[in-house]
Amino acid sequence: MREELRELYKYRELLYMITYRDIKVRYKQSIMGFMWAILMPILIVVSGIVVRYAYALAAHRELQMADIASVAVKSLPWAFLVSSIRFGCNSLILSNRDLVTKIYFPKEIFPLAAALSSLFDFAVASGALVVFLAVAQIRVSLSLLWVPVLLLTLIALASGIGMVVAAGSLFFRDVKYIVEVLLTFGIFFTPVFYDVRMFGDKGKWLLLNPVAPLLEGLSACITRQQPPDLSWFGYSLGFSVVALLGGYVFFKHLEPAFAESI
Amino acid sequence: MSDVALRMEHVYKKFRKGESFNSLRDLIPALTGKMFRQQELSQKDKREFWALRDISFEVKRGEALGIIGHNGAGKSTILKILSRIMKPTKGNMAVNGRLSALIEVSAGFHQDLTGRENIFLNGTILGMTKREIECKLDQIIAFSGIEEFIDTPVKRYSSGMHARLGFSVAAHIDPDVLIVDEVLSVGDYVFQQKCLDRMREVISNGAAVLFVSHNLKSVAEFCHRSLLLERGQMVTIGPTQEVISSYLKRSQSAHLRSTESNSVVISKVTVRNAVGECLRFQSGERAWIDIELTAHQRCSKLSVSLYVTDEQYQSIFDTSTERLGHGNFTLEAGEVFTCTFELQLNLANGIFHPSILVYRYDTQTEYDRWAPAATIHMNSDEDVRGVANCFPQVIRQEIRTTSDGNLAAIAREPSVTEITVQTDVATDPRWD
Q1: Which of A19, A40, B17, B39 could be A116's S-S partner, Cβ–Cβ 3.0 to 4.6 Å?
Q2: Interface probe, candidates A29, A177, A260, A261, chain B, greatest B C-beta count within 10 A
Q3: Measured between CA atoms, how close is B82 to chain A, in angstroms?
Q4: How far is CA A80 from the centre of its chain?
Q5: What pLDDT was estimated at residue B410?
C-alpha cells in the first residue's frame, strides 16, 4: 500500500488538474456560474426551514433564529457529502470512461477529485453561510476550532464512500441507482432538518449513522459554542478512517480489472 | 542489462467471452442459485479464451520493434498490458523508465475546455509535470499548427485538429519507452511526416519504441525488428523485412472473395517473377499474374479485369483483357480459362494489392472478384514517396547570383537557386 500511496503522490498534479477541470466545466456550462454552488444548499436550507416551521407550529412555539442557523450549518456539509458521493459514483463510468480504458494512472484520482471539486462548491457556499451567520449574530468562540477537525473527518468519510461506490458502479450498473436512492432518502435518517436531541433517549440510534455526530458536532460548536460529544465524535472518526482506508484498499484491489470490465 | 528498456516474459492473457453479471440484480440470484445446485465447470471454461499466449520479447534502448498482425491478433492487448492498463493473467513484464503511450492521444480531452487548457490537462494525464508543460507550451502549440484556435473550446475542433493537438502533447513527452498505436493514420501527409520525424528523434535520443500499425510501409521504415502475431501467439520475431514477407505469405490465404453467383469463379491467382512465385519485387521489375477461371454455367462476353490498389485500397491502376484488345470470351459449363498479365512494376516503396475481377463487359455484371488477390511488397533504391516510381535523377543543379555586386538586391534576395530536376526516362537503363 505504501507503494501505491507513493504513486498517488507522484500524480498529485493530475489530481489537481482533474479537480480543476471538474470545477471549471461545472461552472462554465451553467448559466448561473457560481450560483450553482449555492443553489443546492439553499434548496436544502429552505426545505429545512419549512420542516422546522412545521415542528414549531406543532410544538406551539416560535421558530427561533438558532433553529434556522442550525439547519443551515448542517445542510451545507450534507450537500457536500451528497455531491461528492454522487459525482464519485459517476466519475469512472460516465465522465472519464475513455481515460479508464486507455491511459494508465492511479484511478482513485477520479473519486478523490469528485470529492475535492465538491469541496470547492462547499467553500463557496460556506462564504454565503458565514455572511448569514454574521447577520444572525452567532457568536464567535474557541469551539470553532473544532470545525476543521469535523470537516476533515467528513471529507475522509466522503472520499472513502466515493471510492467504494465508484468501483462498485463500474462492475455493477445498478449500484448507481441504489446510491441515488440512498442519497435521496438519507436526509431523513440524518439529523439535517431535525436535531438528535428532539428524540431524547432514542436519539442515540440516530447517532449510529456516522454522519450524524459530525453534523450535530458542527451545529454544536458553531451555533451553541459547545464542543462536540467526544465519544460520538470518536465513533465517527473511527468509522471515517476505516471507510477511507478500507475504501482505498477495496478500490486498489479492483483497479486492475477496471479496463476490461467497464 | 540496463540497456533493455522493455521486456515481456511468457505473458498470457485470458478474456471471458459473452456476458458476465454486470448488475447486482443478476448477480444475487445467480449466487444463491449456485449454492443450491452446482454449476458445471465446463460451461465456464468454454467462455474463456486466451487473447495472448506465451509472449516473450525485449526491446533495447534506441531500438524500435514493430508489431504486425491481423485485427484481433492481440496487438492492442500487448500494448494495454505494457501500459499497465491491464494485468497479464500469467507472466512477467518490466519497463525500465518512463513509459508513454500514443494510444488514443485525445482520450484525455474535455470538450468544454479550450485547446490550451486541454494541453495542460492531457499533459498531466500522460504524466508530465505542470512545469514541464509550461516550458514546452509554445513548442506544443507550434507543432500542432493550430495556434489560431488554441483558445477555442475543443468541441469546436474538427476531428483532425483534435488528433493533431493530442499528438502534439503526447509527442513532447520525453519517454524512455514509447508505444505507438495507429496514431499516424490521422492528419494530412505533412503532419504525418512531422510525426514520423518526431518519432525518429525520440529513438535517436535513446528511447525504445514499440510500433503497432497496419501500415506496413511505416513499420518497415521505422523498425529494425518486428514481431508477427497471429491469434495471440508469436509467429516470428526478427528483421522487419523477413517478418513482413512471412506476414504477406500467411495473409494470402485469408484474402477476401466476393461472389455474386458461382456461374464463373476465379479459381486461382498466382503472382510470380521471372523465376517463380514471388511477393517481393524490386521497383521497375516485371511481374506476371496468372489467373485461372472455372465456369459452372455457360457465360458469354466475359472479360477479366486487373487493378492494383495501394495500401489504403485506393485504386492506382486498372486494366482488363477487353481493354487491352483481347476482346471478350465465352465459357461453357466446366471449361477452365487461364490468362497471364505481364506488368512492369514502376511502383514506389510500399505495399500494393493486385485484385482480379471477372465481369460481363457489355452489362458490367460482376461474376467474381478477389480483392485483394495478393499483397505485394515493393522495394526501390530511389528515395521516392507516393505510389509511382518515375526513376528520377538530378542531372543538373547550380547556384548563381543574378546581379553582380548589387548589394540591395542581394539583401532582398540573397541568392537565387535554380535546381533543375529532370526525369529522364531515356537515360535509365531499366527502360527499354
Answers
A1: A19
A2: A260
A3: 10
A4: 4
A5: 46
pLDDT digits (tens, 9 = 90+) for B170-227: 888 888 888 887 655 656 677 777 777 888 888 888 888 888 877 777 788 888 899 9
Please, which residues bridge with residue A194 across strands? none
**DSSP state letter for A30:** -
Beta bridge partners of residue B377, listed in sequence order: B280, B351
Q: How far is A113 from chain B (nearest CA, A)?
A: 13
Task: Choose, out of A10, A101, A103, A107, the residue to mutate when testing the contact with B (most B CBs < 10 Å).
Answer: A103
What's the number of CA atoms in the CB half-sphere (13 Å) around residue B291?
A: 26
> Which cell goes with A51?
420542516
**Backbone dihedral region of A185: left (phi > 0), alpha (psi from -120 to 50 degrees) or beta?**
alpha
Substitution target in B21, B87, B98, B125 with the highest count of A β-carbons within 10 Å is B125
Three cell numbers written together for B252: 494470402
For chain A, what are the domain ranges? 7-261
Q: In chain A, positions 142-161, which contact chain B (CB-CB < 8 Å)?
A: none
Question: Is A259–B86 a contact, with Cβ atoms under 8 angstroms apart?
Answer: yes
pTM of the entire structure? Answer: 0.75
What digits encode the pLDDT tens for the residues A176-217? 999 999 999 999 999 999 999 888 888 889 999 999 999 999
Domain spans in chain B, listed from the N-terminal domain onward: 4-249, 255-379, 393-422
B121 vs A contacts (CB less than 8 Å):
17-18, 21
Q: What residues of chain B, 11 to 40, have a C-beta less than 8 Å from chain A?
A: 15, 20-25, 27
CATH of domain B255-379: 2.70.50.60
- Residue listed under C-alpha cell 507522484: A10
Q: Select from B246, B247, B203 the least CA-distant residue to B221.
A: B203
Q: Rounded to an integer, what distance in angstroms lies between the CA atom of residue B193 and that of residue B201? A: 12
Fold entry, domain B4-249: Rossmann fold (3.40.50)
